[in-house]
Structure formats: structure tokens, C-alpha cells
């Protein structure tokens, strides 16, 4: 099959069953976010002092959570103790949001990851509120668990469950020489779990949530390499009713943003699907989406891969050399087909994330036993993935803002 031919790339849909979540979570999120939409524009707020900022945060969390916020409230002193005064030896990572430290809560005998947000500017406060709200009201095995938060003074700190294997980026793109690279099966398992996290946000959460910052560094791994999505500060509520998209300022990480979102600011769930395709391609190739250390023709991963997608004889050139040839040939073809579908320039022909999840279930081996028992014909293979090309999304000219906060 020529991957560059759109007609040949149309595939049969898998049926999927989206797990039912507690109705209270759906109702709470829908009602509370709707109230948040009707409040005054946050960017117009100003704080005279730290106490007014702290009071605002506490009031917003209480108001939006409506008593459903289960996360614990920590004092700054408690978190200083947990991280040994934010000791650099406990530093797990650092980014534009701030720093993450490993901590230990003595009262719970619990290891945690403590994310101390950058205190400069209002943007950090907004992201703080969004993350507390989303992770308190939405729960899934592939979303990181929020243990608690702190808003003492001008501090904005989030406390998560500790993920002992760090991020996917640590094992894929910044591998320590002393560590073994991820094998093929583990990569497919991680891809499936991360896709399930997106599926929950897109198709179970009500209203749907667009993650908007899907990348390897935001996929955390537990002791068994089960993935969990983290860092929801840029998440947006998806379009509802007759709206086809959300209009917002373009944010995220360069290289991972879908082309239509980067050029117009029009955000849909298909934007996350594109970002998933980028990360999945990173997992297959072991290459960063943008790598200026490579020759100019290879610096942009997606651009480098596009012509290779069209030539089956060159598929082997796209595999991470760290795998040393240890991968199933058929599995590689199927994985590249999924990646190519997710990376379609036109959003409407990308698959739904639920179809991606079903396809990846076969690649990860989770459906293998089930198929072997059910199939009478041993030569029968699972139906391939299909994009919903006929369900063309209508892009409206007017901007549809989900909330009043300008981000």
C-alpha cells in the first residue's frame, strides 16, 4: 500500500467502546467550566499584594470545584520539608513552567513530584487553576494523579504522584548511556496508553478537553512503564454544540502543533491527533521532531519522513537504530501507517483518537490473544484504520472562545 495515496490510505473503522465514567464527574466539569466562562475576563484582574492573589486562587478553586476538589491543600512549609528545601539534588526536571522536584510526604509515607510554577506573570496563575480543576475532576489510569497543591503567598505549586521512570523523553530522546533503549513492544505499549489518555479527554470528558501540549516530555512512566499524561496547564475545553473549533492564541511546543492550529489558531481534537502522530513517529525513529544537529534535509522529522512514507522499500530507514533490527516487519508497516494517517495536513482526514487506540491495541499485543481465540481463519488480520474523511469539519469564520481567559 502506498502511504502517500489518500484513497488507498482509507481504512475500515474499528469499533471502540469508550469507558463510562462516573456521571458526577461529567456533570461537575460541564457545569463548573460553564460558570467559569461566564466570569469576568481574567486578564483584566490585578493583584495589589500576595494575600489578594492567594485569596483569589482559593476562591476560584472553591467556586469552580463546587466541593469536588479532592486534592489536598499543602502549606509551603510542608513542601519545603518534603523536598528538603527544594534541594537541587532532588531536581527531576525544568522547563518554561518552572521546576519539578522529588519529594516525600511523611504523613502519607508517599513519594511525590512537586512542580513549582514560575511566579512571574498572571499566565502561571491561570495555568495553575486549569490544571487543578481538570486533574481534580477527571480521572483515568493514563492521566497523572494530582495529590494536592499549594497557593501560599505568591507560590503556585502542584503535587503529583511520583513516576519512577521519568518521562518518555528520558528513555527515547535523552537516553542515559547506562540505560537500555526501549524495546519495540514497550514503545507500542506506551503509545497505546498515551492514546487512551487522549481518548478519555476527547470522548469521555464532558465537555471534551483538548490537551494541546502532547509531547514526549509530558508523557510520564510508572515503574512498569505505563504512561500517564501530565502538565495540563495549556489544556482547553473543546467545541460544544454546533461549534466546530475553538479559537485561541497558538501555544504549545514548536514542531508538535498541527499545521491548521499553528496558522489560524483554530483548535480541534484533531490537533491533538496530529501531535500524537509526531510523538509516535519519534518513538518509531528515535529522532526529535526538530533536531538542528542533523543535516538540513533531516532537521524537521515530519518533513524528512513524508517522502519515505511513500516508499515501502525505505521503511527500514525510519526505524530507530537503537532497536538493532529487533522489530516485527509487519508491525513496523502498521505503525508507520498509523503515524502517516495522524500526520495528514488536512485535519478532517485524520482518524479519531479512538480508532488510533484500537489499532495500537493490536500492535501492543493486548488484542493478540483475543484475536487468536476468536478468529477461525488464522490468516485473518485485524481491519486497518480508517480516517473519517467523509466527516469534513466545517471551519467557521467567527472565533469561538471556550472561556474568557485569553491564553
TrEMBL record:
<feature type="domain" description="Protein kinase">
    <location>
        <begin position="86"/>
        <end position="363"/>
    </location>
</feature>
<dbReference type="GO" id="GO:0005524">
    <property type="term" value="F:ATP binding"/>
</dbReference>
<keyword id="KW-0067">ATP-binding</keyword>
<keyword id="KW-0449">Lipoprotein</keyword>
<protein>
    <recommendedName>
        <fullName>non-specific serine/threonine protein kinase</fullName>
        <ecNumber>2.7.11.1</ecNumber>
    </recommendedName>
</protein>
<keyword id="KW-0418">Kinase</keyword>
<dbReference type="GO" id="GO:0004674">
    <property type="term" value="F:protein serine/threonine kinase activity"/>
</dbReference>
<comment type="similarity">
    <text>Belongs to the protein kinase superfamily. Ser/Thr protein kinase family.</text>
</comment>
<feature type="binding site">
    <location>
        <position position="115"/>
    </location>
    <ligand>
        <name>ATP</name>
    </ligand>
</feature>
<dbReference type="GO" id="GO:0005886">
    <property type="term" value="C:plasma membrane"/>
</dbReference>
<feature type="region of interest" description="Disordered">
    <location>
        <begin position="366"/>
        <end position="407"/>
    </location>
</feature>
<dbReference type="Pfam" id="PF00069">
    <property type="entry name" value="Pkinase"/>
</dbReference>
<dbReference type="InterPro" id="IPR000719">
    <property type="entry name" value="Prot_kinase_dom"/>
</dbReference>
<keyword id="KW-0723">Serine/threonine-protein kinase</keyword>
<dbReference type="InterPro" id="IPR017441">
    <property type="entry name" value="Protein_kinase_ATP_BS"/>
</dbReference>
<keyword id="KW-0808">Transferase</keyword>
<keyword id="KW-1003">Cell membrane</keyword>
<dbReference type="GO" id="GO:0004672">
    <property type="term" value="F:protein kinase activity"/>
</dbReference>
<feature type="compositionally biased region" description="Polar residues">
    <location>
        <begin position="380"/>
        <end position="401"/>
    </location>
</feature>
<keyword id="KW-0547">Nucleotide-binding</keyword>
<dbReference type="InterPro" id="IPR011009">
    <property type="entry name" value="Kinase-like_dom_sf"/>
</dbReference>
<dbReference type="InterPro" id="IPR008271">
    <property type="entry name" value="Ser/Thr_kinase_AS"/>
</dbReference>
<keyword id="KW-0472">Membrane</keyword>
Amino acid at each position: 500500500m502506498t502511504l502517500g495515496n489518500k484513497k488507498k490510505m482509507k481504512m475500515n473503522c474499528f469499533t471502540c467502546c469508550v469507558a463510562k465514567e462516573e456521571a458526577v464527574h461529567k456533570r461537575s466539569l460541564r457545569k463548573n467550566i460553564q460558570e467559569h466562562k461566564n466570569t469576568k475576563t481574567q486578564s483584566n484582574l490585578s493583584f495589589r499584594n500576595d494575600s489578594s492573589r492567594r485569596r483569589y486562587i482559593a476562591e476560584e478553586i472553591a467556586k469552580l470545584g463546587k466541593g469536588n476538589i479532592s486534592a489536598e491543600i499543602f502549606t509551603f512549609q510542608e513542601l519545603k520539608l518534603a523536598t528538603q528545601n527544594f534541594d537541587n539534588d532532588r531536581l527531576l526536571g525544568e522547563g518554561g513552567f518552572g521546576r519539578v522536584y522529588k519529594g516525600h510526604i511523611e504523613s502519607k509515607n508517599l513519594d511525590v513530584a512537586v512542580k513549582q510554577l514560575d511566579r512571574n506573570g498572571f499566565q502561571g496563575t491561570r495555568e495553575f487553576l486549569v490544571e487543578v480543576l481538570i486533574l481534580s475532576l477527571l480521572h483515568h489510569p493514563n492521566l497523572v494523579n494530582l495529590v494536592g497543591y499549594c497557593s501560599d503567598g505568591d507560590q503556585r505549586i502542584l503535587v503529583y504522584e511520583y513516576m519512577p521512570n521519568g518521562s518518555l523523553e528520558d528513555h527515547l530522546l535523552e537516553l542515559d548511556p547506562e540505560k537500555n533503549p526501549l524495546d519495540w513492544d514497550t514503545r507500542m505499549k506506551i503509545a497505546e496508553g498515551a492514546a487512551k489518555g487522549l481518548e478519555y479527554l476527547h470522548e469521555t470528558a464532558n465537555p471534551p478537553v483538548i490537551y494541546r501540549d502532547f509531547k514526549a516530555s509530558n508523557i510520564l512512566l510508572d515503574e512498569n512503564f505505563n504512561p500517564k499524561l501530565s502538565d495540563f496547564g495549556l489544556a482547553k475545553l473543546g467545541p460544544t454544540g454546533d461549534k466546530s473549533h475553538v479559537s485561541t492564541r497558538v501555544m504549545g511546543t514548536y514542531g508538535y502543533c498541527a499545521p491548521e492550529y499553528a496558522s489560524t489558531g483554530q483548535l480541534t481534537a484533531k490537533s491533538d491527533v496530529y501531535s500524537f502522530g509526531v510523538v509516535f513517529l519519534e518513538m518509531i525513529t528515535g529522532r526529535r521532531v526538530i533536531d538542528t544537529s542533523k543535516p538540513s534535509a533531516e532537521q524537521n522529522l515530519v518533513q524528512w519522513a513524508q517522502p519515505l512514507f511513500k516508499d515501502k522499500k525505505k521503511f527500514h530507514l525510519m526505524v530507530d537504530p537503537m532497536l538493532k533490527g529487533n522489530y516485527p516487519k509487519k508491525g513496523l508497516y502498521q505503525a508507520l501507517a498509523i503515524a502517516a494517517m495522524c500526520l495528514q495536513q488536512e485535519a478532517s482526514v485524520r482518524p479519531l483518537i479512538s480508532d488510533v487506540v484500537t489499532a495500537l491495541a493490536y500492535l501492543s499485543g493486548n488484542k493478540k490473544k483475543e484475536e487468536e481465540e476468536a478468529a477461525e481463519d488464522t490468516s485473518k488480520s485485524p481491519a486497518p484504520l480508517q480516517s473519517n474523511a467523509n466527516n469534513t469539519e466545517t471551519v467557521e469564520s467567527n472565533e469561538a472562545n471556550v472561556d474568557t481567559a485569553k491564553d
